């Protein structure tokens, strides 16, 4: 915690900001990449969203109040950037959000950076069929093994609602996978 406080102070200080930001990127780049990748699915799109996320973090670090962990604040930015990206892509292609997410999961076969097998593709399709909030909760809890308290900070939702969303997501995924 003390290290985070020092890092935040360095990020807010113009003289140490660039060095501190490189350290911040080093600490969180991979975790944020995989968080975003689970939402937007494509490697190239993930890189774009990750870059936008770090730009927003850099521009807005002075507004960070410390009400939550720096990590949670950055995850919230990354989540919002990824959702904005998907919504914009769906709007540009004139399809609804669920159709857009299903198309993205379908394209995993062609993604040279995806090395999963058919079962993993079926899982991604099942996740893509969930409502967006359930997708986010499922990914953060199941894949990232995040605590409900942390997810609550990121998504600004109560722990009880998150537990219910996760439970419903698991049941829907199980049902979808049994059908395939």
Explain the overall architecture.
- The longest helix has 24 residues, at 17-40.
- The protein is globular, with a radius of gyration of 17 Å.
- With 180 residues, it is mainly α.
- The model has no long low-confidence stretch (mean pLDDT 89).
- It contains nine helices and no strands.
Strand content: under 5%
Topology order in helix (H) and strand (E) letters? HHHHHHHHH
What's the overall geometry?
A: globular
State the separation between the terminal residues, measured CA to CA. Answer: 46 Å
> Quick one: biggest sheet?
none
Using only CA atoms, what is the Rg? 17 Å
- Structural class based on helices, strands and sheet pairing: mainly alpha
Number of H/I helices: 9
Indicate the low-confidence ranges by residue numbers.
none
Number of strands: 0
Q: Tell me, rounded to a whole number, the average pLDDT.
A: 89
**What percent of residues adopt helix (DSSP H or I)?**
over 70%
Summarize the structure.
The chain has 180 residues and is mainly α. The chain is built from nine helices and no strands.
List keywords for this structure.
single chain, 180 residues, mainly alpha, globular
Blueprint (SSEs and pairs):
Blueprint: H1 2-12, H2 17-40, H3 43-60, H4 70-92, H5 97-106, H6 118-128, H7 132-143, H8 148-155, H9 159-179
Helix pairs in contact: 1-2, 2-3, 2-4, 3-4, 4-5, 4-8, 5-6, 6-9, 7-9
């Amino acid at each position: 915690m003390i290290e985070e406080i020092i890092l935040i102070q360095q990020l807010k200080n113009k003289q140490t900001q660039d060095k501190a930001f490189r350290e911040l990127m080093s600490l969180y780049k991979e975790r944020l990449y995989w968080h975003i990748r689970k939402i937007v699915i494509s490697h190239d799109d993930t890189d774009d969203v990750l870059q936008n996320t770090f730009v927003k973090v850099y521009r807005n670090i002075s507004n960070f109040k410390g009400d939550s962990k720096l990590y949670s604040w950055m995850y919230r930015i990354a989540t919002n950037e990824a959702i904005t990206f998907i919504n914009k892509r769906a709007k540009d292609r004139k399809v609804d959000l669920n159709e857009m997410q299903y198309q993205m999961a379908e394209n995993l076969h062609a993604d040279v950076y995806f090395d999963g097998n058919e079962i993993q593709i079926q899982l991604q399709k099942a996740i893509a069929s969930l409502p967006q909030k359930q997708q986010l909760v499922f990914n953060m809890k199941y894949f990232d093994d995040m605590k409900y308290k942390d997810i609550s900070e990121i998504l600004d939702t109560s722990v009880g609602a998150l537990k219910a969303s996760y439970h419903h997501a698991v049941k829907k995924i199980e049902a979808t996978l049994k059908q395939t």
